[in-house]
Inverse folding.
């Protein structure tokens, strides 16, 4: 029985992904900053661990407690929506700490065991914002695009050890806590010169009818984790697939 460790499982994509792997008979190590076993079904194949991917000691403790794993899913992330001009650099650094440096630190923590066993998969969840430009998410997009470049290079670096690296790119999903979790960081990021523009963007988003479901992302992560080809990118959700096809 294979084991997957998934970060950011308290809600959204991470929660859906943990359920998806459980349903398919895997051992699942679901991690979150504040462990909550009540959000997941009771199962002898499930363990819930505390993990803050921005804290080195937390990463070391979680990886040690997890033991040998077959797949790492770097899903944990934070959102940010607002005018770049009004975004403090401290906020930008916070976004990169979680969205970019967190997955890199988690990856570095598991690569030695993967390399020694000559087996393992790293799945990094980014965003469809890397597939096409979107307004008001400059910092968020930059943090996710950095992970894309990191993953593409790392995939080449680790293939000699039979360790695979994959990218899952979710589309727009109104059913996650993206906006709710990012609300404190977004305060004051829509200044007067951008107010009318922002209202127009929000109005357009409210008209979007084809969106991504958490299940779409969980299924894409599942396919990526089990894929043995050289495919790097896995678009998740019909809107992300359309953007990926247009980019090609």
């Amino acid at each position: 029985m294979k084991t997957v460790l998934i970060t950011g499982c308290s809600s959204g994509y991470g929660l859906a992904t943990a359920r998806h792997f459980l349903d398919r008979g895997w051992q699942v190590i679901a991690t979150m900053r504040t462990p909550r076993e009540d959000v997941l079904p009771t199962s002898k194949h499930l363990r819930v661990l505390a993990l803050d991917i921005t804290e080195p000691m937390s990463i070391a403790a979680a990886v040690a407690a997890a033991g040998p794993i077959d797949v790492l899913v770097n899903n944990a992330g934070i959102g940010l929506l607002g005018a770049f001009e009004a975004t403090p650099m401290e906020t930008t650094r916070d976004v990169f700490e979680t969205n970019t440096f967190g997955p890199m630190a988690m990856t570095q923590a598991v690569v030695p065991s993967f390399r020694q066993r000559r087996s393992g998969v790293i799945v990094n969840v980014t965003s469809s914002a890397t597939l096409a430009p979107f307004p008001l998410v400059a910092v968020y997009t930059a943090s996710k695009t950095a992970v894309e470049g990191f993953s593409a290079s790392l995939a080449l670096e680790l293939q000699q050890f039979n360790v695979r690296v994959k990218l899952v790119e979710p589309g727009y999903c109104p059913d996650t806590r993206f906006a709710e979790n990012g609300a404190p960081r977004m305060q004051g990021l829509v200044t007067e010169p951008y107010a009318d523009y922002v209202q127009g963007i929000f109005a357009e988003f409210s008209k979007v009818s084809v969106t991504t479901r958490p299940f779409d992302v969980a299924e894409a992560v599942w396919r990526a984790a089990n894929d043995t080809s050289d495919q790097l990118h896995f678009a998740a959700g019909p809107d992300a697939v359309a953007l990926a096809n247009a980019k090609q």
About this structure: The radius of gyration is 18 Å. The beta strands are 3-6, 27-32, 46-50, 71-74, 120-125, 163-170, 233-236. The CA atoms of residues 51 and 126 lie 19 Å apart. The chain has one domain: 3-247.
